[in-house]
Here is the input.
Amino acid sequence: MKELSIEGAWVDEPRVFQDSRGNFHEWFRSDTFTQETGHRLSLAQANCSVSTAGTLRGIHFADVPPGQAKYVKCVQGAVLDVIVDVRLGSPTFGQWESVQLDDRDHRALYVSEGLGHAFMALTEEATVVYLCFEGYAPEREHSINPLDPDIGIDWPSLVPRLSDKDAAAPTLSEARDAGLLPSYEACRAYLNELRARSTS
Here is the structure.
């Protein structure tokens, strides 16, 4: 695993073993995850999303604490997965980074508490699975419009297909003005609490 330019986001690039029968790789290792992030993965929910080409999901985030950290992998097809820093006070607030997740290189992405997450399906069918640290709680969930020009995500040149909810989501500045965004300090404090629990 290696940390990306946005603090709290990691990409895992596994070694893929291939032969005439197919291939094999480890897409999650608890010891590696704990060593890199400083805390254990506490699995609360596992999700599977199947999307057609151009489907754009996100930008989603949750209140912190507890947030909803995700370990994300594309098991069929390909997606452009995007992390957006929506934490008020973060040195990279408003910035984004993307990683292609696909069924060839088998990368996985860890998105920690307080970060925004979105992806666009690049293939006719793309299946994404998530390991979630907290269960879904609609009263704590929020969205930001993934086409917000102030964020300026460089999405692929496919016609974006959004849910009604994501299409109507506020911009980053509107979410900030409405008091929806988590604070960087609250996110760091919660991560420190998780690390302390992992060593006790």
About this structure: Residues 98 and 154 are 9 Å apart (CA to CA). The two ends are 24 Å apart (CA to CA).
